[in-house]
Specification:
Bound molecules: flavin-adenine dinucleotide
Structural class: alpha+beta
Strand content: 25-35%
Number of strands: 22
Radius of gyration: 21 Å
Number of helices: 12
Helix content: 25-40%
Strand order of the largest sheet: 5-13-14-17-12-20-18-19
Distance between the termini: 14 Å
Shape: globular
Length: 456
């Protein structure tokens, strides 16, 4: 065997697997294969000047490379079982919380020290929310910020680079079962190992699907979350974001009984494009450094869609809606809330008249031509509900970027060790469909590394 352990994917799941293997079993020979670039080479070509929108690079530097989809993220590490994944269903709530705290400790040791840990514990906003039928979920959230998150990743890489073999710009084509282990097949060469950890994230969802088909690993289709990214003056939400940073608020619509929730709140942040398999959707992030902050706050409003038999392709449904916005807008569409309510599209002129400066250059348009009525109605209803706890949310100039889609990987069948039916083949992080966040993906990496080091 070339290696004791091969890790596919250098996102948080892969990095924390490598970290824990090095710590717990330094004698093991470990390699990490990553489709994207090394951290310092990751650069999105959009500069707002020469390159204004996504040019669909061969590997997207926002989604791929050392640090995975998390590298330029806001670096919000949520410490909770209430959202971010269902790891607790496999390993228990207490173990999950213990691992989430452990990941936080490592982030602090590698450059995150001094960053703020926010918590909803004892917050007056819980009561305020419930008065308006809004439900604030419990969590602690460590906000590293895009800048500190990058420093932590750099420090982790420096710690690992001489102890683990990294192969960047090396997408793994397939994983094959061989006698006593696995063969990881790349375009130039094949590499063998005793144990294999797959942590390919959302960007690797199609690849993961193929591997599961080839290795006959059962999967089940998952949900898709569809909605918009809201951007408004930071002052509108500052009373909430100053105390909680991120507030996860859930609302049940009176019209359809659907749940709409806030997601990924970025105080004084920026809205960005996200490219998943060539489909451009909206996302957001913010910096810890005040010099890099903006005057706006952004967050997503998402409606979860789960389909029953015979329809299985929930991601395909989300993709089709995102493609529609890409078809009409050439990428992400932006619309003022007032224009949406009056049933008119936003135009360049109307955008110029707005009192808010958008942080993402998107095409002014009409989201009602893109989003299904039921989803759009839910979003509008929630905006009016949020206006009661954060007056100004339902202002004419509140910007809605569409669409934002959270694609969930299909859930891969694994046991309580996160091991597939093939012994020694572990599937973790967002690629497994079990986690949907930095903290939970990282925790799943620590978890499998510990059981592998005990075994080898
Ligand atoms: C803009 C943005 C902001 C975000 N902000 C937050 C946030 O603040 N908080 C939060 O909790 N979450 C956030 N997220 C989500 C978070 O980044 C993910 O949940 C997390 O990165 C998942 O980690 P992972 O290791 O499972 O997968 P990923 O981070 O997606 O990493 C997977 C890696 O595997 C590689 N790969 C895929 N296929 C192959 C292959 N065949 N061969 C080799 N390598 C392969 C990919 O290139 C990628 O680098 C954000 C995401 C984005 C895009």
């Amino acid at each position: 065997m070339n290696y004791d352990v091969i890790i596919v994917g250098a996102g948080p799941g892969g990095i924390f697997s490598a970290y824990e293997l090095v710590k717990e079993a330094p004698h093991l020979k470990v390699a990490v294969f990553e489709a994207g670039h090394a951290l310092e080479k990751r650069r999105c070509p959009i500069d707002g000047d020469k390159v204004k929108s996504c040019i669909s690079c061969k590997t997207c530097s926002i989604m791929s490379g050392f640090g995975g989809a998390g590298a330029f993220s806001d670096g919000k590490y949520n410490i909770t079982n209430d959202f971010g994944g269902t790891l607790y269903e496999y390993i228990g709530k207490q173990k999950t919380m213990e691992l989430l705290h452990y990941v936080d400790d490592i982030n602090m040791e590698y450059g995150g020290e001094g960053t703020k840990l926010y918590t909803t514990k004892g917050s007056k906003f819980k009561k305020e929310c419930i008065r308006h039928d809004l439900h604030l979920l419990d969590a602690s959230v460590r906000h590293l910020g895009t800048d500190i998150n990058y420093i932590v990743l750099g420090n982790l890489y420096n710690h690992l680079k001489d102890k683990v073999e990294f192969f960047f710009d090396t997408p793994v084509k397939t994983v094959a079962i061989i006698d006593g282990g696995y063969e990881v097949q790349c375009s130039d060469a094949n590499y063998t190992c005793k144990q294999c950890i797959i942590s390919v994230g959302r960007v690797g969802s199609k690849w993961m699907e193929n591997v599961c088909k080839e290795l006959e690993i059962p999967t089940k289709s998952n949900r898709v979350d569809i909605g918009v990214r809201v951007e408004l003056p930071a002052d509108v939400f500052s009373h909430l974001t100053d105390e909680l940073y991120e507030s996860k608020i859930v609302y049940r619509t009176s019209k359809y009984g659907d749940k709409v929730r806030t997601f990924c709140m970025n105080p004084k942040g920026a809205v960005v494009n996200e490219n998943t398999n060539g489909i451009i959707t909206a996302n957001g992030h913010s910096y810890e450094d005040p010099a890099l902050q903006t005057e706006n706050t952004n967050f997503a409003l998402l409606v979860s869609k789960k389909f029953s038999e015979p329809f299985k392709d929930s991601n395909g449904y989300g993709e089709s809606i995102a493609r529609l916005s890409n078809m009409l807008g050439g990428g992400v569409i932006v619309q003022r809330f007032g224009d949406l309510i009056r049933g008119q599209r936003s135009t360049e002129k109307r955008m110029e008249e707005a009192f808010i400066t958008p942080t993402l250059q998107a095409t002014p348009g009409d989201l009602s031509l893109v989003l299904p009525k039921r989803i759009l109605d839910g979003i509008v209803e929630m905006i009016y509900a949020l206006d009661k706890i954060a007056p100004g949310t339902a202002n004419d100039d509140t910007l809605l970027y569409g669409v934002e889609v959270k694609f969930y990987n299909m859930e891969v069948e694994v046991d309580d060790k996160l091991e597939s039916l093939h012994k020694g083949l572990y599937i973790i992080g967002d690629g497994s469909g079990i986690t949907h966040s930095l903290s939970h993906a990282s925790a799943s990496g620590v978890y499998v590394a510990r059981s592998i080091s005990k075994m080898l």
